[in-house]
Design brief:
Helix content: under 10%
Low-confidence stretches: none
Shape: elongated
Mean pLDDT: 95
Structural class: mainly beta
Largest sheet: 6 strands, mixed
């Protein structure tokens, strides 16, 4: 068996995006018409065409009537709304903000396919009643329960994420949707609405609350995540979208759907924002500490804010404050985020004194970005008080000696070198900054015994016996 439309009466039909974006080419398809021998397009901005399919770009925002006439007298008509590009931040503190849906109606549009539609207003139906702010929100089914077979979409502007940065998308919502089956989700486009991807693929705190485990009657495919069930009070949902930074303009839309059975009240959405972190774009350590957490255990804790393309941390340990070795590596949990990220690691530690530092590694190969830095060195001590000289090495010395301490030093350290007759051979003062050691240059002297006098700040000086051999 087969089907054909070859015997059908001519019928004008057309397909195109009912909501699209400024300065973005869009395809108008007339080839879905039946029995068409000729085509006459009117795209509403003075543009006409006799081609079967047309690619056109609108250079002004607004709503345009679109019509297609086939065979000279069969016409179908519809409309397209062209949305603007908006800078970030997109918040009520910025100018021309339309995310609260109180004004600037040129910044959002609805593409309704079937069932209940997104409507701007203020519903009285429980679980989608009221607004988060102002007098208007967008509601699926303003004055009715959500109909079966609903498919409706609310489009937001394109947002300029050209500059690398830390970005967050958020909105407020409440809803009552048949659990696991009826749902809504957020999608994004990096090609001005021609193709769309799901924004945020997983169930996570403050974002999607449901993943389809294989329910055939669910409106979104198996394994995909979305908003479903019930949220009886306005709740803020937010997602870090920094992985979209540097990709130019990014369009966003809400997609709400219901199946052919069951009962759903619907949903309400209000106060959409896109924010950008305005501080320095580099991973920063805001806390870094360690202590004995047991008789033979040390625990290190650190916190980042923000993380900017942060990849991993390498924990290094030293027994003398100078020579470090890597003892642990951890992947960053935030990546690019302005939310504090907390880390902890414990390790076996039987000595009374250890030094630790962190190597923080951030990179993004697509952007050619790379940034690495070391944390300050910290000393973790047990049964030690005050700051003293730990080691002087090498001994015998040649051209220099390294001096390490029992704690991290911030301040001046004086040194004097004497021979066995008490004659001063060299002296110096070094400002040690956040370090557990420093290097002192030694003069050229004959083989023999010498004494190095060291004074940390205003503490009492100590003398160390040194040997010089050729």
């Amino acid at each position: 068996m087969f089907t054909t439309d070859v015997f059908a009466d001519p019928l004008a039909r057309m397909e195109f995006n009912k909501v699209h974006y400024l300065d973005a080419p869009m395809r108008f398809v007339g080839g879905v018409s039946y029995g068409a021998d000729s085509f006459a397009w009117n795209l509403g901005d003075g543009t006409t065409s006799i081609e079967e399919d047309v690619v056109h770009t609108y250079d002004e925002i607004g709503e345009y009537p679109v019509s297609l006439t086939i065979n000279g007298d069969l016409t179908t008509s519809d409309a397209v709304k062209i949305l603007p590009q908006r800078p970030v931040p997109y918040t009520d503190a910025a100018g021309n903000y339309g995310g609260n849906f109180e004004g600037f109606t040129e910044q959002y549009g609805v593409y309704h396919i079937s069932g209940s539609t997104f409507e701007r207003g203020n519903s009285t139906i429980p679980y989608k009643d009221g607004t988060k702010s102002g007098q208007n929100a967008f509601v699926v089914g303003l004055n009715e329960p959500m109909q079966h077979n609903t498919h409706t979409m609310l489009y937001l502007p394109e947002f300029d994420l050209s500059d690398p940065g830390l970005y967050e998308f958020s909105f407020w919502a409440k809803f009552d949707l048949e659990a696991g089956k009826d749902a809504f989700r957020v999608e994004y486009s990096t090609d001005s609405g021609n193709t769309w991807e799901v924004l945020g693929a997983d169930v996570k705190q403050n974002w999607y609350n449901t993943t389809n485990p294989g329910i055939n009657s669910a409106v979104f495919p198996e394994g995909t995540s979305y908003f479903s069930k019930r949220e009886s009070e306005f709740t803020r949902y937010f997602l870090n979208i920094s992985d979209l930074s540097g990709k130019g303009n990014v369009a966003l839309r809400f997609v709400a759907k219901s199946n052919s059975s069951g009962t759903s009240v619907g949903l309400v959405i209000d106060d959409v924002t896109v924010t950008r972190f305005e501080g320095e774009l580099a991973t920063q350590l805001i806390d870094w500490e360690g202590a004995f957490s047991g008789s033979i255990e040390i625990t290190l804790n650190w916190t980042t804010l923000p993380e900017f393309f942060c990849k991993r941390f390498e924990l290094e340990r030293s027994l003398n404050g100078k020579d470090f070795e890597q003892v642990y590596s951890a992947y960053a949990t935030g990546g690019s985020t302005d939310v504090p990220q907390n880390y902890s690691y414990s390790l076996l530690s039987q000595r009374n004194l250890y030094f630790f530092r962190l190597k923080v590694i951030s990179e993004d190969t697509d952007l050619g970005y790379s940034y690495e830095f070391y944390s300050p060195t910290i000393a973790v001590r047990r049964k030690l008080e005050g700051t003293a000289v730990l080691q002087v090495f090498p001994n015998p010395f040649t051209e220099y000696v390294d001096v390490s301490f029992t704690d991290v030093v911030n301040g001046p350290v004086k040194y004097d070198l004497f021979d066995t007759q008490g004659r001063l051979l060299t002296s110096g003062e070094t400002l040690v900054e956040n370090s557990a050691y420093f290097r002192a240059a030694m003069p050229y002297v004959a083989s023999g015994v010498y004494f190095l006098r060291l004074q940390i700040g205003e503490q009492e000086a100590v003398a160390i016996k040194l040997l010089k051999v050729r």
